[in-house]
């Protein structure tokens, strides 16, 4: 502090000047109104300010996604004169989706939190890093929005008012108007997730992943299987060729070599034709089975599978696990992918020859 009499620079703790022993002016305390604005708010806000901040952030995200997608589209079309690629629109939409997370990590908080005087911190009271903020943001706006109602009550039972996305990301939402001296003690005393809570979360998480996998498998991967007659025929031929593959597995298990031809497998031409095939080529080097489908070749107006091929490539099990053929990769070198089911999408290529 500078002495008003002799201009000597004194340490802030001094009350008299070191040079001339004159009394130093005492710095006045902040006005009561200012102290009230910066220190009386609770450290942890209630549910309504946090819900309000979430709603504002959701509106901000929707606007950001729309603006960024339009800007990317118009810019690309203006520079190239071509229609914008789908990957560019996806990147612009992803950037808009993650904007609140970027602001939580690098700025003073997302728009909703800044308007309602909130901020996201770690247990040490510092701002979350980018990866932590993105992880928290995705958890919050996927599960909480996609699974409202009973999920909200379930996560309150396990994680309390802190909510699941904060507990799993290691973050807390606090008031930016709280007394800074009260923040760290409050964070240290905050409720943590119990062992039972973690077990329940893992249990429900695994169940959700299994359910999602079933839905994707039933709805997404095999969608419109029955609408394509050629695909349905490939599924049928894949099933009737299974006994031949089992014979090939048995031969390899006995001899540790691949069969040289179909006669070594015990397959006759009559049984092959009865299954809908006209020929079977066996590669003794790599064990590939190449079935030629019986029937006349199709035309552009009336496509058929006649003369085309189903190819099966064996995958071997390690000797530590008993050896043998573990499974077969189904594919084709001349049937379009659109005419094959998802389980038969292997590109046979040169191995089919």
Walk me through this protein's architecture.
- The protein has a 5-stranded mixed β-sheet. Strands 1-2 form a two-stranded antiparallel sheet.
- It has helices at 32-39, 47-80, 86-106, 111-115, 130-146, 150-159, 164-169, 180-188, 195-221, 229-240, 242-255, 262-265, 269-274, and strands at 118-122, 171-175, 277-282, 289-293, 309-316, 325-332, 346-347.
- The chain is elongated.
- It has 4 domains: 1-30; 47-190, no CATH class; 195-221; 226-352, 2-Layer Sandwich (Glycoprotein, Type 4 Pilin).
- Mean pLDDT is 81; it is low at 32-38 and 222-226.
- 49% of the residues lie in helices and 11% in strands.
- Strand 5 (309-316) and strand 6 form a beta hairpin.
- Helix 3 crosses helix 5 (130-146) and helix 6 (150-159) runs antiparallel to helix 9 (195-221).
- With 353 residues, it is an alpha+beta fold.
Itemize the secondary structure elements and their pairings.
Elements: H1 32-39, H2 47-80, H3 86-106, H4 111-115, E1 118-122, H5 130-146, H6 150-159, H7 164-169, E2 171-175, H8 180-188, H9 195-221, H10 229-240, H11 242-255, H12 262-265, H13 269-274, E3 277-282, E4 289-293, E5 309-316, E6 325-332, E7 346-347
Parallel strand pairs: 6-7
Antiparallel strand pairs: 1-2, 3-4, 4-5, 5-6
């Amino acid at each position: 502090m500078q002495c008003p009499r002799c201009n000597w620079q004194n340490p802030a703790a001094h009350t008299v000047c070191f040079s001339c022993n004159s009394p130093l002016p005492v710095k006045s305390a902040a006005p009561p109104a200012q102290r009230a604005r910066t220190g009386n708010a609770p450290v942890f806000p209630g549910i309504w300010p946090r819900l309000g901040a979430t709603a504002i952030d959701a509106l901000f995200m929707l606007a950001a996604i729309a603006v960024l997608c339009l800007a990317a589209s118009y810019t690309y079309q203006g520079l190239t004169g071509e229609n914008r690629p789908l990957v560019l629109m996806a990147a612009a939409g992803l950037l808009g989706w993650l904007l609140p997370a970027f602001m939580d990590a690098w700025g003073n908080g997302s728009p909703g939190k800044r308007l309602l005087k909130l901020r996201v911190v770690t247990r040490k009271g510092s701002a979350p890093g980018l990866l932590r903020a993105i992880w928290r943001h995705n958890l919050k706006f996927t599960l909480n929005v996609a699974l409202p109602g009973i999920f909200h009550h379930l996560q309150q039972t396990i994680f309390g008012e802190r909510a699941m996305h904060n507990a799993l990301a290691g973050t807390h939402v606090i008031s930016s108007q709280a007394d800074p001296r009260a923040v760290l003690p409050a964070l240290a005393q905050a409720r943590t997730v119990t062992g039972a809570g973690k077990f329940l979360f893992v249990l429900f998480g695994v169940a959700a992943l299994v359910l999602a996998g079933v839905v994707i498998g039933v709805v997404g991967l095999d969608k419109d299987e029955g609408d394509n007659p050629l695909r349905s025929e490939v599924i049928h031929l894949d099933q009737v060729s299974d006994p031949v593959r089992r014979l090939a597995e048995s031969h390899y298990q006995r001899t540790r070599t691949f069969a040289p031809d179909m006669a070594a497998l015990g397959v006759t031409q009559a049984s092959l034709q009865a299954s809908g095939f006209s020929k079977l080529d066996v590669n003794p080097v790599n064990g590939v089975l190449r079935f030629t489908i019986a029937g006349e070749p199709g035309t552009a107006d009336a496509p058929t599978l006649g003369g085309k091929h189903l190819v099966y490539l064996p995958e071997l099990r390690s000797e530590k696990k008993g050896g043998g053929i573990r499974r077969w990769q189904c594919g084709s070198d001349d049937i379009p992918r659109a005419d094959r089911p998802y389980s038969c999408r292997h590109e046979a290529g040169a191995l089919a020859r």
